[in-house]
Amino acid sequence: MKALSFNTVDEARRYLEELGGSRGLVLFASAAAVSELSRHAPSRAVLCSTKGEYTPQGYRSGVVTGFEYESGIADIVEILHPPVLSVGQLSASYHKVQANANAFMLLLCDGTGAMEETILSSLFFIAPEFKIVGGSAADDEHGETYIYIGSRRVRNLGIFFNMPGRTALVKENIYVTTGKTLLVTEADVFGRTVYSFNGRPAAEEYARVLGVPEAELAEHFLSSPLGKRYEDDLIIASPMVINPDGSVTFYSQVMSSTYVEVLSAADPLAVLEETLGGSPYKPSFVLNINCTLRDQLFIRDGLWAAFDGIMLGFCGNTTGFISYGEQYYKKHANQTMILLLVE
């Protein structure tokens, strides 16, 4: 796989027009750029709108990036609404690659549809250890996300890659547990809204546990998200907004009658060194998906330049995008970085 980067839409358009039938392409760019490029995209090109781009030159905003691959190794499947309508085609594509331990699925979702968990639950036929990596597309000023297969706009899609070499998935959290927990006592799971923690109004109790005034709670969302525990894994659920009734809406589902852990930020650069130091091998290609909330934190704290130095020193053939949520195996996460490593 080869990472690509284009400074302008015209550069990317010319590349699309010259793309041969033996090559497939996945491109990440702003909503406006994706909409423009879709008019020139061949059938083997996939386009996804983003909140920012990660390139072989590091973090950028307003460019076009992505990767190229031999088209014969991939099967592209549109995921309809509701996703159950696509189970047959998804299952058929999965069964072609399920015996290959190196295979994986790239899952790109509409970042405003709040359907990620529903899509993942529709993949019941996929083995738990099968690699699923992905991100949710970002919207424009009108709230529209853009995902295309060629010139055809779709809401969600999956690409099954039948890889010849080793692959690995790595998930990075830059947050650690504080030892404080909250019991979700009332929630609308599909609406991703919590009405009460510990039997008290959600915003009031969240603020009390953090030790901050309720009126200032939203200012602490970036630094103190919540964690959902799955056996030994911690999946971040990021708060989105405090509603007028004191409930809190999140970027992912939070279940009633479960405990969530209050988190605090660690040193992101030290965590990155640890993450990459634990890599099972030196990769020849990396797909890097970072949450938009990590992006906000990194911009606020001026971390991207140092992050780039570490990441590109690990692998220069790197691409990716800033997403509205991350898919890791069959879980939907927020405020997370997901890496796909290809040996």
Topology record:
Blueprint: E1 2-6, H1 9-18, E2 23-29, H2 31-37, E3 45-49, E4 53-55, E5 58-60, E6 64-70, E7 74-79, H3 87-97, E8 104-110, H4 116-121, E9 131-137, E10 147-149, E11 152-154, E12 156-161, E13 167-173, E14 175-188, E15 193-197, E16 200-201, H5 202-210, E17 226-230, E18 233-237, E19 239-242, E20 248-250, E21 259-265, H6 268-277, E22 285-291, H7 292-301, H8 304-314, E23 318-323, E24 326-328, E25 331-333, E26 336-342
Parallel strand pairs: 2-3, 8-9, 22-23
Antiparallel strand pairs: 1-6, 2-6, 3-10, 4-5, 4-23, 7-12, 8-12, 9-24, 10-11, 13-26, 14-15, 14-21, 15-16, 15-20, 17-18, 17-21, 19-20, 22-26, 24-25
Helix pairs in contact: 6-8
Beta-strand percent range: 35-45%
- Detail the poorly predicted runs: none
**What number is the mean pLDDT?**
96
Q: Could you give a short account of the major beta sheet?
A: 8 strands, antiparallel
Number of strands: 26
Large-scale geometry: globular
Structural class: alpha+beta
- Rg, rounded, reads 20 Å
* Domain unit count: 2
Total of helices: 8
